[in-house]
Structures are given as structure tokens and as C-alpha cells.
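Weekly modeling sync, notes
Attendees: S.R. (lead), two postdocs, one rotation student

Agenda item 3: backlog of single-chain predictions. S.R. asked that every request posted to the team notebook include the full sequence so nobody has to chase files. The rotation student volunteered to paste the first one in as an example of the format we agreed on. Action items at the bottom.

Example entry:
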Amino acid sequence: MTKSQEWNLTSNFFALDTFIRVIPNFPKPGIMFRDITPLLHNPPALRTTNDRLAEIAESWNATLVAGIEARGFLFGLPVAERLSLPFVPVRKPGKLPAEHASVNYELEYGSDSVELHCDPPVAEHRVVIVDDLLATGGTAAATTRLIRNLGGFVVGCVFVIELLDLGGRDKLAELPVEALLEY
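Predicted structure, as returned to the notebook:
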């Protein structure tokens, strides 16, 4: 841990960005990858991050937390635990063994889908969607549609990081969207 990180953790000011590693040209040239591995490796920083995410979810009076595969599980489960709320995993295709619903969405070069078990139900719940990163917004928008199709009410989306240049927030325009870091 650097002196800067140590100071930030013990003071009233928490600089989350000191725990995000920037890797240039990954996964391809021109991309500045924001790696959360150092954050995951530091328990006090991770605890503070999850506390902040939970505060946001609580302010929206959520009754259920949905985490998007896979890193949304890392942050969504602690948020649910802190608020004593149920958690549902939003999965990639072919991962759910019981009856489930799915929504397809378009990518820049193709399509994908997200799936959610039908039981336990999300109907009538006030759902907060949690993920590590908001980029183009396609997966979060599809998750919103899926939850609504199953009778849930999405009250907001919370992310650790938002990549502003990719315009993902525009796909979630009718929802409250919060990110702890913006690049």
C-alpha cells in the first residue's frame, strides 16, 4: 500500500481512484483498461467501496439487489448483505439451471442476452442494479428490461466506475445512475 493510499484510508477522504490500475492498450490498442484488482486486494478500500454502494442503494429504498455477471456479483452481494436485502444474479446465457427469463440486446458487432431465474421472483420488488463498470450501457439496459418484464421496478443503477466517453448513461436515461468514479 502506498503512503497516499494509507493516508486516504485513515482520513475522512477516500481516494478510490488510487486503487484502480490503468493498463494501456488492453484488450486492444487505444483502450485504457481500468483494472479493479488492486481494489479487490485491499480489504479496507473494498469495504469502503461497498459501504458507499450500499448507501446509494439504501437512499433509493431498494428491496432487492441485482448483480450483473460477473463483477456485479463481487459488489452486489456485499450491498445486499449490508442492507439485509435479497440478491439475484443476472447471468450470461446457459448458466441458470431452473426456469428463467431472458432478454436479447444488440452489441456493436452482434448480440448477446442476459438471464434471470423466475423463482425467487423479482415481481413487486424495488430493484437496484449493481455492477463494477458502466461502459456502453447495453448490459445494464437489458437487465433493466428483464427485471421490468418480470414485474420488478428498477429504482436505479450503481457502478464503481463509469466511462463517460462511451455514453452508457444515455441508455439508462430514465433511471437514477450513480458511479463512484468517472473517467
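Discussion: group reviewed the output briefly. The radius of gyration is 16 Å.
Action items: rotation student to repeat for the remaining queue; S.R. to check formatting next week.
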